[in-house]
Structure formats: structure tokens, C-alpha cells
Amino acid sequence: MLLLSILGSIALGAPDARQVEFKSGGERIVGVVYTPRETKPGTRLPGVVITGAWFTVKDQMPTNYAKALAAQGFATLVFDFRGFGKSGGKTRNAEIPAQKAEDIRAAAEFFSRQPYIDSSRLAGMAMCASTGYMANAIHAGAPLKAMAASALWIQDASAVESVYGGKEGVAKLLKIGDDAMAKFKQTGIVEDVPAAGPPGSDAIMQQAPYYTDSSRGLIPAWDNRFALMSWAAWLRFDSLAPAKKLRVPVLVLHSDNAALPDMARRFHAELGGPKEIYWTQDAHMDFYDQPEPVSRSSSLAAEFFRRRLDGPVSDRSEIITAIQQVAASVDAKSWAALRQRFAPKLEIDYTSLGGEKATVDADQLVEDWRAYHQKFDSMRHVYYNFEVQLDGRRALVMHDGIATLTHGEKRWTVGGRYTVSLEKMGKDWKINKLAFEKKFEQGDR
To answer: Both ends of the chain: CA-CA distance in Å?
Structure first.
């Protein structure tokens, strides 16, 4: 599926672009819409609203994804938030999460009304900090029917303290932010510092090569400024909280080499609706602009949006997704997400690998898997050749699988045939029987 998406991107060619404008909070918002080249007049396309990292502009990482998704058949919208880039707003370069969520909702509502958009197939894709903004926008009524997030930045109060110097460090920054906000309200003056710069400077980010490289993020359209009043809202912002409120399908794309991976895992695990996860080894800022991570992430998002937006999802598709997400959750070491795929008790048979055949509690099984898999540096499980037999709210599935696990210089690959039983519990398919028959193995077990 990934290969087909990439080939589709190549076949469709570079997208067309047009500038658009709309209002949010009474301010002029400037955006760009990308559409597949030579789209026939009257065609109503699926759409994606795309947002980037904190204090960035549309011309940075959002445009990379907008072009990639447009080349795969979507109309895409990127825009400058209030106070950034070409858009209006007096609070220049101020990171105000609530205001940005309002802008995302305004963008989605504007896009949904365009004659070339099928509003029933409108989704959002967020990167880094804007993941939380988009989640809040959807909860507040933005007409986005699905969401993908890559290179997430997810924070709550404990994460903020761990990043910004504990309670004392956070308190100092909050005072700076509150004082700068008070000064702005009294005088209209926005106090700012460089957003990114070399070590030892007064820049907010000093180990961020994307933002200091003119061939990457350091572009003329970006001011590279951080309004100090931003600390007042940013440090009080909880982007984990909206996860439980979301009911639309959500795809999470992240890595152990990206920012706060455990928080990304928690965000995925706490999502309240249909969800999927895909884990890579990419560095956080490589998600923004490097060809392979952008191609992989945009293609996975395109496939996810088509499957979730093009009509009701069949039981067969949901069953295969549930099984695939067992593999994806293990690869991500997202044990809470793995537990959500299992019934309370399972029959397991791993005797072909020297394991046991037994009926076990799901909680204990997940803990056993966590203890075993935690020692590996990386894992990649691939499941394929699905044969699904449906009987009402029960299903029996046979499929092939290959797992490659690495630890230091050691690598072990094992492949075989799985037999999986599932039962539909409420709206979700849960696994209640799992057996594996080994066919081959290579390397150092």
C-alpha cells in the first residue's frame, strides 16, 4: 500500500497552487491551497488542513506535506496563524495555543465551503506542537473527520517541568511571560528574542539544526522571533488532555528519536476513538523536511485518510487493522495501546518458539511482552496474507508474519503463520486467541 501511494504521487506530478484568504478572530489569514495538477473542473476532492511546529510559518514543514499529499490526490491547505508570516494580528510571533486552535477551526470551516472540496472527506494533519491545537480545534467543532499527527510534541504539567528546569525553572519563565503579556496590554509592545540560534545565545532553541540551516527551516518568510509573552500560555498548555475527547480516527507517526516519545505513546493510548500508530527511527526534525520521512509519513497519512474517509469501514478492514495494530504497538513499545487490542483473557500458543500454551490474563500477557521486548533497540513486525472468516461478531484470521529484532550488533529474524480469533466487544474487535507456528528463523535469538 505504501509503495502504491508513492507511485501515485509520482504519477500525478507537482501540484497546482493558489493563494487564499479568510478571517479568524477578525484578522486576515493568508494561506495557500494545493491541488493535484490538471484536476478536472467540477471535481470535489478530499481535503487536508496541514499545520506545523510552534512559532513556524506555512512555508516551512507544512508546505512539504501539503505538496506531498496534493500529489497523492488531495486538496491541501496551509496557512499562517495570526501573528505569523503574511497573516494579520498584533501579537506577532506569539505562541498562544487557544488562539491557534481557533485559527485551525476557521481554516477547516473555510476549506469545507470551497466548491472543489468534498466536506465529508476533510481531514487534518498536524506536526509537533500543533497536534494539541488541532485536537482542541476538532473537539471545539472544526469539521475535520480524521486526523494524522507526525513528530508530535505532547506535554502536560509534568512534561513541562521535565523540559523547562523543574518547578523553579517553569516559575521563572512564567514570570517572564506574564510580565511581557502585561507590558503588551499596557503599551502594545511585543518583547521578543530569537527563536533559534547558536549555543550561548539568548535564542529559545539552541540545538535545533532545522531552524538554523538556510537550506532547511531558516527561510526568508520566517522571522525567527519568539514573543516572550508566549511563555504565559505555552507553559500552561496541556496537549495530552484533548486526546480522550477526540472521537474522530487519529493516526500517530512518531519515533524514539523524536521529542518526548513516551508522551506520544500516552496521547495515542488515551485517544477516545479509532486510532492507529506507526513507529519509525527518524529524528524529530527529519520528519519536517527529509525526503524519506516526509514520503513515508505523507503516504501513510494518505492511505489512512482514504480508508477512514471514503465510506463506512468494513468489519474485515477493522479486523485486519486490529491485528496490524498489535504489531505496530509492539514496535512502538506502546504497551497501553497493545492492551486495548486484547480481550480480558486470551488463549495463547507459542510452543513453536519454546513458549507456553495457556489461557492468560491480558494484563499479565502484556506485562510479559513488555519485559521481553523492552531490551531490544528496535523491532519491526510485518503481517501480511490475511485470510478472514467472519461469523457475526466473531472472526477467525490466519496470516503470515515476520519479525526482526535488534540489540546492539545482534539481530534475530523469525517468520511464521499466525492464527487469531477475535470477538467484537462494543464497537471494537478484540483478540481472544493467538497462536504462532514458526516456519523459519535467522540470526541470534
So the answer is: 30
Q: Answer whether 0.70 is exceeded by the pTM.
A: yes
Q: Where are the domains of the chain?
A: 2-155+237-309, 335-443
CA-wise closest residue to 71 among 105, 34, 108, 44: 34
**How many Å apart are CA 240 and CA 62, to the nearest integer?**
22
SS3 labels along 28-81: EEEEEEEECCCCCCCCCEEEEEEECCCCCCCCCHHHHHHHHHHCCCCEEEEECC
Cell numbers placing 42: 467540477
CA 69/CA 64 separation, integer angstroms: 9
Convert the pLDDT of each residue in 291-303 to its tens digit. 999 999 999 999 9
Q: Given CATH 3.40.50.970, say whether it is the number of domain 2-155+237-309.
A: no
Q: Which residues, at least 6 apart from 428, have a Cβ–Cβ distance to it below 8 Å?
A: 322, 340
Q: How far apart are alpha carbons 87 and 31 in whole angstroms?
A: 8
Unique residue bearing C-alpha cell 502594545? 188
Average pLDDT over residues 426-433: 96
pLDDT at res. 2 = 36
pLDDT digits (tens, 9 = 90+) for 115-160: 999 999 999 999 999 999 999 999 999 999 999 999 999 999 999 9
> Span 335-443: which CATH code?
3.10.450.50
